[in-house]
Design goal:
Number of helices: 14
Largest sheet: 9 strands, mixed
Order of helices and strands: HEEEEHEHEHEHHHHHHHEHHEHEEEE
Mean pLDDT: 91
Helix content: 25-40%
Strand order of the largest sheet: 1-2-3-5-4-6-7-8-9
Number of strands: 13
Distance between the termini: 33 Å
Structural class: alpha/beta
């Protein structure tokens, strides 16, 4: 896991259950074929798109490069496959199914992007959505050095323009092909894609009716501050990991022993890691002690991970720290590499050849990050999120976050959500259009020894189109063969799942909702809203 997604956030979580035809039925009739009613076997309707002019689209001058029919496959319906470019160099792919259900689904990217994660929309494509994804304006790979960031225009594309421009272009092409625009438009993404979702809701609230944003990774505040902090803790000055795998196993075991039972069930999952009170000093080596233990330096590093990034005055530099229970996923070498690339290219592109993350000054250099964070992050430093326009037009938002995500700590998302509901008439009113789900035990976007496969696409569609409020969404954990190990319902924050006290603990049917009263969830940190 990482700031933007150790587990390749562009791969959206697999759906948990097979949907009935009625759930995903088309919103209106007569919409299954292209406007000229060519047969499914004829390529002309698809290929004709290449001759159409999309160069005058506002802020989305578009050129179609290829248009070809693709026959049905076991996992994909027959469709027209479009590739194109939105000026200056946003590459995208759009798939237009023969039997269209009238909906559009846009997928988010992961890491530094640079590729087109169209297969992250496979669940929507299988159900008849027109689907699209872009490379966010540059060619690269998930963690390849983002050398493109020396160009201000490409930074702006990565920061949000590409997400909006693709929505404009895709809807125009859809209208040209089918003869009408989508009845409903949706966005879903995790990590960088989660950031895209929050950003598009604020910057272009008209683009989507429903948004699913998972583990949103704010490139400015994470790459420059939190991921940098964890790199310092998890790597020694001579570039060796602070913790060996067996040290992390020891630490994780002690955490679970101390806190696993706080929710009433010892199942290896911390329902709310914030309730854990564990001091790693309990594991520090003593004179004459036998067995494995932690050095004083390791204890200090673990405390710094849990306690969060701070300057010399003790001021919190990021809203949260590594969750208790996340220890088995701590990855120093990967975080050091990502932090180095984020700081050299995204944060300080003008000094990139000489920059070394180890020289970062926690008192001086955080201020210097504010200008670039304002380019990438949905929320500008010292400002609060503003989703009023998205709410006013009837938009619906589902955010989810791994409870054991240490690369993008869930407290950052909780702080964001608290900032929204404190400015939107309170939590109850905010839950009418925006809900947050914390997934206990899940790492960044997926993974972890806990139920972490769930279907948010159906949840957002039903909320937008039927008014069905999402809650009790079933999450599953499966073994390597795909067999179900256990299930657990996910309840909208701040509520959590509670075991009823009888029956199989691994069966989600034996869990119910425990109502939790929210506290002051807004973090007191260096970039908190001041206006």
């Amino acid at each position: 896991m990482t700031v933007f997604g150790f587990c390749r956030a562009y791969r959206i979580l697999a759906i948990a259950a097979v949907l009935s035809m009625s759930v995903m039925a088309a919103p209106s009739s007569g919409q299954g074929r292209p406007a000229d009613r060519q047969s499914a076997e004829s390529p002309s309707a698809c290929e004709a798109l290449r001759a159409k002019d999309f160069a005058s689209l506002p802020d989305a001058a578009t050129s179609i490069m290829t248009a070809q029919r693709v026959a049905a496959a076991p996992d994909k319906p027959a469709h027209c496959r479009i590739t194109g470019i939105v000026a200056p160099q946003i590459q995208f792919e759009l798939r237009l199914p023969d039997d269209w259900n009238g909906r559009y689904l846009q997928g988010g990217c992961g890491g530094f992007c640079g590729f087109m994660p169209i297969d992250g929309c496979a669940d929507g494509q299988a159900r008849g959505f027109a689907v699209a994804a872009s490379n966010l304006g540059h060619v690269g790979a998930v963690w390849a050095p983002p050398v493109w960031a020396s160009n201000p225009a490409l930074r702006a594309d990565f920061g949000g323009r590409a997400t909006h421009s693709l929505a404009v272009a895709a809807k125009a092409i859809i209208a040209a092909y089918y003869g009408r625009r989508p009845s409903y438009s949706y966005f879903k993404g995790c990590s960088t894609g989660g950031r895209e979702g929050l950003g598009i809701a604020q910057q272009h609230p008209e683009d989507f009716d429903g948004i699913v944003a998972g583990d949103p990774a704010f490139a400015g505040r994470l790459g420059g501050i939190w991921n940098n902090w964890t790199a310092h803790q998890l790597m020694t000055p001579d570039n060796t990991p602070t913790f060996a795998p067996e040290d992390l196993t020891l630490l994780n075991g002690a955490v679970l022993k101390a806190c696993d039972g706080l929710d009433g069930v010892r199942d290896g999952i911390l329902t709310d890691a914030r309730q854990c009170r564990f001091d790693p000093a309990q594991l520090q080596c003593r004179s004459g002690a036998k067995g494995r233990c932690l050095s004083a330096a390791q204890v200090a590093a673990a405390r710094a991970m849990y306690g969060g990034a701070r300057n010399s005055a003790g001021l919190l530099l990021y809203p949260g720290g590594a969750p208790y229970g996340s220890e088995l996923d701590w990855n120093g070498p990967m975080m050091a590499a990502i932090s180095q690339q984020s700081l050299r290219f995204l944060a300080f592109p003008e000094i990139r050849p000489a920059f070394d993350y180890k020289t970062f000054d926690w008192d001086r250099d955080v201020k210097a990050l504010e200008s670039t964070a304002a380019v990438y992050d949905p929320v500008v430093p010292h400002e609060a999120p503003d989703l009023a326009a998205f709410k006013a037009r009837g938009g619906r938002m589902i955010a989810y976050h791994g409870g054991s995500d240490w690369g993008v700590p869930p407290e950052g998302m909780i702080d964001y959500y608290a900032q929204v509901w404190n400015r939107s008439g309170g939590l109850a009113r905010t839950r009418e259009w925006f809900r947050l789900f914390i997934v206990p035990g899940m790492f960044h976007c997926r993974g972890g020894a806990a139920p972490n496969n769930f279907d948010m696409l159906t949840a957002i569609v039903d909320w937008v189109e039927k008014g069905t409020t999402p809650d009790g969404i079933v999450a599953e954990e499966r073994d390597e063969r795909g067999a179900l190990k256990r299930s657990r319902p996910l309840y909208a924050y701040p509520n959590v799942a509670r075991y009823i006290g009888k029956g199989d603990e691994n069966d989600g049917a034996n869990w119910t909702m425990r109502v939790v009263q929210p506290g002051e969830d807004r973090a007191d940190w260096i970039w908190k809203p001041t206006r």
